C-alpha cells in the first residue's frame, strides 16, 4: 500500500525540504548513504502530514522532535498523527533533536536495526 499525501501536504513537504533543521540535515546525510540499501525519503507527505523521514520498504517513519513537540497541544497532535500512521501500517520512531545531535551514530544504528527487521517482516 502506497502512502500518499494531500496536495497541501506535498506543497508543505517541498517547503520543509528547503528548511531542514541541523539535526534533520545530519540524520539525512547519515541515512541516505546506508550500507543496507534502504531508501529513505526526507519530508515525505503522508495524508495531511509530512514525515521527517520515511522508508517505504520498511513502512517506517522517523521523526526528529525539537522542543516545541513538548509544548501546548503538540503531544496530543503527535499522538493523533502516530495513531493515524499506525492505522496505515507505518511504525513511527521519534528522537529528540538533542539525541540526534549528540548521538547520531547510535540513533542511526537503532533506525537501521528496526528498518531491516521490518523490511524482512514485510517481505515475509
Enumerate how many helices there are, as a single number.
Answer: 5
* Radius of gyration, taken over Cα atoms and rounded to an integer in Å: 14 Å
Order of helices and strands: HHEEEHEHH
Percentage beta strand: 15-25%
Low-confidence stretches: none
Helix-strand category: alpha+beta
The coarse overall form would be globular
Topology, number of strands: 4
Strand order across the biggest sheet? 1-2-3-4
Question: End-to-end distance, in Å?
Answer: 15 Å
The largest pleated sheet is described as: 4 strands, mixed
Percent of residues in helices comes to 40-55%
Mean pLDDT: 88
List the helices and strands and how they pair.
Layout lengths: L6 H11 L4 H11 L8 E6 L2 E7 L4 E6 L8 H14 L3 E6 H6 L1 H20 L1
Parallel strand pairs: 3-4
Antiparallel strand pairs: 1-2, 2-3
What report would you give on this structure?
The protein is of the alpha+beta class and 124 residues long. Helix content is 50%, strand content 20%. It has helices spanning 7-17, 22-32, 74-87, 97-102, 104-123; strands at residues 41-46, 49-55, 60-65, 91-96. The chain is globular. The protein is built from five helices and four strands; from the N terminus they run ααβββαβαα. Strand 2 and strand 3 form a beta hairpin.
Amino acid at each position: 500500500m502506497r502512502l500518499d499525501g494531500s496536495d497541501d501536504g506535498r506543497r508543505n513537504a517541498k517547503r520543509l525540504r528547503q528548511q531542514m533543521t541541523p539535526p534533520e540535515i545530519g540524520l539525512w546525510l547519515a541515512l541516505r548513504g546506508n550500507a543496507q540499501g534502504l531508501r529513505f525519503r526526507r519530508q515525505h507527505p503522508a495524508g495531511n502530514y509530512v514525515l521527517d523521514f520515511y522508508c517505504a520498504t520498511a513502512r517506517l517513519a522517523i521523526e526528529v522532535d525539537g522542543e516545541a513537540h513538548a509544548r501546548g497541544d503538540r503531544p496530543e497532535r503527535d499522538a493523533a498523527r502516530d495513531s493515524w500512521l499506525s492505522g496505515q501500517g507505518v511504525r513511527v520512531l521519534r528522537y529528540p533533536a538533542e539525541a540526534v545531535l549528540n548521538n547520531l551514530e547510535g540513533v542511526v544504528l537503532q533506525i537501521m536495526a528496526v528498518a531491516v527487521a521490518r523490511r524482512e517482516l514485510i517481505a515475509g
